[in-house]
Amino acid sequence: MEHIGEFDLIEKLTSLIDIKDSSVVVGFGDDCACVNINGKLILFSSDIQIEGSHFLKEKISPEDLGWKLISVNVSDIVACGGLPKWSLISIAFPKETEISFLEDVYKGIKKALDFYSFSLIGGNTAKANQIVFDLFITGETKRFVPRSGGKEGDILFLTGHTGLSRAGLELLLMEKKEYEDWEKQLISFHTKPTARIDFQPVVERFANCCIDVSDGLAGDLGHIEKQSKVKIILEKENLPVHPLLEKFCKKYKKDPYEYILFGGEDYQLVFSISKEKAKEIKNAYPIGYLEKGKGLFLKEKKNIYPIFPKGFQHI
Ligand code: MG
Ligand code: MG
Fold first, then answer.
1. 225 in the same domain as 184
2. Which bound ligand lies closest to the C-alpha atom of 212?
3. Ligand 2 centroid vs 274 CA: distance in angstroms?
4. How far is the CA of 293 from the centre of ligand 2 (A)?
5. Å from CA of 94 to ligand 1 middle
6. Residue 104 and residue 45 share a domain
7. Which of 31, 72, 182, 268 could form a disulfide with 79 if both were Cys (CB 3.0 to 4.6 A apart)?
8. Same domain, residue pair 260 and 195
9. Nearest to 220 by CA among 182, 272, 169, 178
10. Residues of the chain with pLDDT under 50
11. Is residue 311 part of a domain?
């Protein structure tokens, strides 16, 4: 396990499974799987929050944890052009876990279910050495939007700022006695992200390809680049820099683009659209374009540099 990355491991394991069911439209390798059920495209996905590797119990409120569990799952459904429908939860925890902690997590879950308008309809509990919340989610779309659909000439759009969650996490880990208001705001981008369900109609209608930014913009664009078989050019001056990230980077002498390109868990969407349809897009940032070829590049004035995706891997 130490010598193999998350994505190589996934490839190794999934190659052992073959899907023989012809109603399966998309299997492994995208944000969701997709099955055609009587003409309806149903999406399936799951995502997990494990104490120690995804969250630290003393660093996130249980309500925020519940909200985050739901949001990270909705994000994958929306990235495929869908709306969430039903979900199941598996929870595991040590026996000394306080019931009030679990209740508070469920309060956060309930708030998120109401916000995103879908249901949690079942689940499973077990004992474990650390706290685990695993959500299985389904959704529905009129058109499955894959990672592989990007075309040469497409414009690349990003729905919001990236890098904030990582800056927030770093602030949290500094364990300061007191945080200023703007620092608290940055931390909340990490502890309480919101999936961009507001962009679902746009993605479903117009996007050729889409992915949610969970592992870092560069890392996630690496999947688009490989699966769409295109070259991606990011235009540095078009990458949005949030004023709070600027403030953070000034104070701690960091390069904001390190955060914007490589910081994970922002749950923004990045999608590509043909030039003709790009005019329809409002409130998203045109951050680059797709060309014939391969690789991910950053264009700064007249210079172009390759970017090597080093998005966060969970192993
Ligand atoms: Mg995803
Ligand atoms: Mg995910």
1. yes
2. 1
3. 26
4. 27
5. 29
6. yes
7. 31
8. yes
9. 272
10. 315
11. no
107 lies in the same domain as 153: no
Smallest-distance ligand from the CA of 73: 2
If asked whether residues 155 and 277 sit together in one domain, one would say yes
- Answer yes or no: do 188 and 259 share one domain: yes
23-75 confidence digits (pLDDT tens): 999 999 899 999 999 999 999 999 999 999 899 999 999 999 999 999 999 99
Q: Based on the structure, what is the number of domains in the chain? A: 2
Give the per-residue pLDDT at 4: 76
Q: Which two tokens stand for residue 57?
A: 């119990």
| Per-residue confidence (pLDDT) for residue 315, from 0 to 100 | 43
User: Which one of 78, 108, 141 terminates a domain?
Assistant: 141
Domain assignment present for residue 16? The answer is: yes
Question: How far apart are the CA of 179 and the centre of ligand 1, in A?
Answer: 31
β-sheet bridge partners, residue 41: 36, 141
3-state secondary structure of 24: strand
Angle at 264 between CA 271 and CA 142, to 5 degrees: 30
Calculate how far, in angstroms, residue 215's C-alpha sits from the geometric centre of ligand 2.
Answer: 9
CA–CA–CA angle 88, 14, 142 (5° rounding): 55
Distance 75 CA to ligand 1 centre (A): 7
3-state percent breakdown (helix, strand, coil) of the chain, nearest 5: 35, 25, 35
Answer yes or no: do 154 and 264 share one domain. Answer: yes
**Calpha distance 131→69 (Å, rounded):** 13
Both structure tokens of 237: 């001056």
In a domain, 70, yes or no: yes
From ligand 2's centre to the CA of 73, what distance in Å? Answer: 6
Q: From ligand 1's centre to the CA of 187, what distance in Å?
A: 21
Distance from the alpha carbon of residue 307 to the mean position of ligand 2, in angstroms: 22
In a domain, 156, yes or no: yes
Q: Give the model's pLDDT for residue 124.
A: 96
- Residue 71: closest CA among 162, 183, 189: 189
